From TrEMBL, chain A:
Residues 296-315 are annotated as: Disordered. This is Pyruvate dehydrogenase E1 component subunit alpha. Its EC number is 1.2.4.1. Keywords: Oxidoreductase, Pyruvate, Thiamine pyrophosphate. It is an enzyme of class 1 (oxidoreductase). Residues 305-315 have a biased composition (Basic and acidic residues). It comes from Linum trigynum. The pyruvate dehydrogenase complex catalyzes the overall conversion of pyruvate to acetyl-CoA and CO(2). It contains multiple copies of three enzymatic components: pyruvate dehydrogenase (E1), dihydrolipoamide acetyltransferase (E2) and lipoamide dehydrogenase (E3). InterPro entries: DH_E1, PDH_E1_Alpha_Subunit, Pyrv_DH_E1_asu_subgrp-y, THDP-binding. It catalyses: N(6)-[(R)-lipoyl]-L-lysyl-[protein] + pyruvate + H(+) = N(6)-[(R)-S(8)-acetyldihydrolipoyl]-L-lysyl-[protein] + CO2. Residues 68-364 form the Dehydrogenase E1 component domain. One of its GO terms (molecular function) is pyruvate dehydrogenase (acetyl-transferring) activity. Tetramer of 2 alpha and 2 beta subunits.
TrEMBL record, chain B:
This is 3-methyl-2-oxobutanoate dehydrogenase (2-methylpropanoyl-transferring). Keywords: Mitochondrion, Oxidoreductase, Transit peptide. InterPro entries: THDP-binding, Transketo_C/PFOR_II, Transketolase-like_Pyr-bd, Transketolase_C. Signal peptide: none annotated. It comes from Linum trigynum. GO terms for biological process: branched-chain amino acid catabolic process; response to nutrient.
Length: 393, 369
């Protein structure tokens, strides 16, 4: 016990020989913040800008945090899958597994005053912004303990304190909203930026181009992040877009193509992007990523792509496996420790689900709350205008 | 023009094919029963199928009978999210049945242009909740094209299909009923079927109608509603309401999935001695005022029910028109049993919906007024 206590301090270099000797008993996970420089999988592809360097500065603690966060997200999404099949989650459920590196890498380079706004595949983004597993599962199951009081569901997670503006059902609608957020940040001289995420399907919406023009015209600190998972629900990108180079779509707006399955590349790109927009106006980041599940739980995900493709990506490019290899390769933790982390996460997720199940459903009176601002006093008429008449609170 | 016709192999003009003879274009908003509605039940025997299969069959027939008809929308190529378009791309080719990018405004604008060139453009909007980016195109372009060009151009060949309505767990953006917004626009038609056999006939009529039509399909019934559907090509007249249940105490008017709920309420009311007449409006604009007026003149009471929120819903138009026409005959105020004035909720859906018990309560209070 004394050994593990000592080695969790920064002076673990001194204790390494001792630690190595005790490796078979318990080798502590490295929590060192010694800088480590790792190259991204592929260089960045720029459009009208100078790309950032491939060498990313990180440290063991950060890498292990990445591993833990992404494994938590993965476990959470898989648990949500089972809950949906057990009909505890109803409605529509869009899962993010495979794309975890995007939100984890993004969080690593920004703070909670920067705003993030995304579409409906938002469970992991919410977790990254500081949401708890309990809030997530409660909201998914429509309970009071959820982040939107159970009234939003899977597609509508929000967290005001952390600058997470949700959670939007209509494809592409969130991007012009992001422009508004960025304008407010610029006006208030916040030195913060907005990340507006959208998918490759949404990239063909007219409002995207309107947003690009507005943000470029007024030099807004907005980073438009296209999470390109190559399928707009059932339509492959080559069938929906003349130019699948989404990072070039901005034309006069610079862009950067990033390997979205490499969390370090994402971190580097977001850091670069934030610095860029605070000086020069908008930029587009295209994250080349992939989702293992179908578009939503109602979509098997195999009618428009082969199972070989899915398993191929899982073997070659899985974000969690990449970090696992890095951690093991740089000897920052052992296999067993990583497996222990995963076991711990599984337990956390199960506990959160159990607790969420205990949370009650919202009160029926909640049907009428938050339609208008509180105290507005209008009436909502019920079925026959006689029996039910509720004054909106 | 002739060269364009020649390119598509055969001449296309409305009325040259035998089964079109019964169908006359409508120019007034008043429905005349000059067109005899084909007694479909007496025709060739049908096959038992559900709503999406009936719609699929209708689309197959529409594309087969008219070489200048096209079906497109998001993900229609592999059959669509509700399987309404299965087999079409394989049978008619990718140049007639194709996927569009994710851009509703673009899809509908494109469809209007295609229709303006004398084609039958059947555009699919994946869920009626997503029709709003296209709302400007429908209201400002499609509805007014004929009017503002003085009859030179029209987009009559346009049909927009969209699944609408609650489905039990759809939440805010997969359950909306936006028919009321479109009923406020002169120049287009809004058609809503209640069952597979109705859907097939109404969809074929809508596609072949010379006015732009917005065709809402009740998504709850896609799999749930099963009945015998004749296999041949048949059309049902638009702007003609149908009395699907005869009665003498109160008239109930509805459309789409809501009718099955209303029917259950009618059966329950029957046990209490209240004889209900149930009318399926089928076409919301231009709607068949005569049939409803005749019915209310008989019963003296009216109840309208729809899933959309009550304020400003289409029930308000029916109520106002009938009160104008039948004021002295009415025994009780017109009752509207509709969705609540809130956004379509997620977990609260059972409270929001105008279910059988709410309708039953309203029937009783109207009859006992």
């Amino acid at each position: 016990m004394a050994l593990s206590h000592l080695s969790s301090t920064r002076s673990n270099r001194l204790l390494r020989p001792l630690a190595a000797a005790a490796s078979s008993l318990c080798r502590p996970i490295s929590t060192s913040t010694e800088p480590l420089v790792i190259e991204t999988s592929i260089p960045f592809t720029p459009h009208k800008c100078e790309p950032p360097s491939r060498s990313v500065e990180t440290n063991p603690q950060e890498l292990l945090t990445f591993f833990r966060d992404m494994a938590t997200m993965r476990r959470m999404e898989i648990a949500a899958d089972s809950l949906y099949k057990a009909k505890l989650i109803r409605g529509f459920c869009h899962l993010y597994d495979g794309q975890e590196a995007v939100c984890v890498g993004m969080e690593a380079s920004i703070n909670k005053k920067d705003c993030i706004i995304t579409a409906y595949r938002d469970h992991c983004t919410f977790l990254g912004r500081g949401g708890t597993l309990l809030e997530i599962f409660s909201e998914l199951m429509g309970r009071q303990g959820g982040c939107s009081k159970g009234k939003g569901g899977s597609m509508h997670f929000y967290k005001k304190e952390s600058g997470f503006y949700g959670g939007h059902g209509i494809v592409g609608a969130q991007v012009p909203l992001g422009c508004g957020l960025a304008f407010a940040q610029k006006y208030n001289k916040d030195e913060n930026a907005t990340f507006a995420l959208y998918g490759d399907g949404a990239a063909n919406q007219g409002q995207l181009f309107e947003a690009l023009n507005i943000s470029a015209l007024w030099d807004l600190p907005i980073i438009l992040v296209c999470e390109n998972n190559h399928y707009g629900m059932g339509t492959a990108e080559w069938r929906a877009a003349k130019s699948p180079s989404y990072y070039k779509r901005g034309d006069y707006v610079p862009g950067l193509k990033v390997d979205g399955m490499d969390v370090l590349a994402v971190k580097q790109a977001c850091k670069f992007a934030k610095e860029h927009v605070l000086k020069n106006g908008p930029i587009i980041l295209e994250m080349d990523t992939y989702r293992y599940h179908g578009h939503s739980m109602s979509d098997p995900g195999s009618t428009y792509r082969t199972r070989d493709e899915i398993s191929g990506v899982r073997q070659e490019r899985d974000p969690i496996e990449r970090v696992r290899k890095l951690v093991l390769g740089h000897d920052l933790a052992t296999e067993k420790e990583l497996k222990d982390i995963e076991k711990e996460i599984r337990k956390e997720v199960d506990e959160a689900i159990a607790k969420a199940k205990e949370s009650p459903m919202p009160e029926p009176s909640e049907l009428f709350t938050n339609v208008y601002v509180k105290g507005f006093g209008t009436e909502s008429f019920g079925a026959d205008r006689k029996e039910l008449r509720a004054t909106l609170p | 023009m002739a060269s364009v016709l020649g390119r598509y192999g055969r001449k296309w003009s409305l009325g040259c094919v035998s089964y079109h003879k019964n169908y006359l274009p409508r120019f007034s908003t008043v429905a005349h029963s000059a067109v005899p509605s084909e007694p479909i039940q007496q025709q060739q025997a049908g096959r038992s199928m559900n709503l999406y299969s009936a719609i699929n069959q209708a689309l197959h027939i529409a594309l087969e009978s008219d070489s200048r008809s096209y079906v497109f929308g998001e993900d229609v190529g592999f059959g669509g999210v509700f399987r309404c378009t299965t087999g079409l791309a394989e049978r008619f080719g990718k140049h007639r049945v194709f996927n569009t990018p994710l851009c509703e405004q673009g899809i509908v604008g494109f469809a209007i242009g295609l229709a303006a060139m004398d084609n039958r453009a059947v555009a699919e909007i994946q869920f009626a909740d997503y029709i709003f980016p296209a709302f400007d195109q429908i209201v400002n372009e499609a509805a007014k094209f004929r009017y503002r060009s003085g009859g030179q151009f029209n987009c009559g060949g346009l049909t927009i299909r969209a699944p609408y309505g609650a489905v039990g767990h759809g939440g805010h953006y997969h359950s909306q009923s936006p028919e009321a917004f479109f009923c406020h626009v002169p120049g287009i038609k809004v058609v809503i079927p209640r069952s597979p056999s109705q859907a097939k006939g109404l969809l074929l009529s809508s596609i072949r109608d010379q006015n732009p039509v917005v065709f809402f399909e009740p998504k709850w019934l896609y799999r749930l509603s099963v009945e015998e559907v004749p296999e041949h090509d048949y059309m049902l007249p638009l702007s003609e309401a149908e009395v699907i249940r005869e009665g003498s105490d109160i008239t109930l008017v509805g459309w789409g999935a809501q009718l099955s709920i209303m029917e259950q309420a009618c059966i329950e009311a029957e046990k209490e001695g209240i004889s209900c007449e149930l009318i399926d409006l089928k076409t919301l604009i231009p709607w068949d005022k005569e049939t409803v007026e005749a019915s209310v003149s008989k019963t003296g009471r009216l109840l309208v029910s729809h899933e959309a929120p009550i304020t400003g819903g289409f029930g308000a138009e029916i109520s106002a028109s009938i009160v104008e026409r039948c004021f002295l005959r009415l025994e009780a105020p017109v009752s509207r049993v509709c969705g609540l004035d809130t956004p379509f909720p997620l977990v609260f859906e059972p409270f929001y919906m105008p279910n059988k018990n709410k309708i039953l309560d309203a029937i009783r209070s109207t009859v006992n007024y």
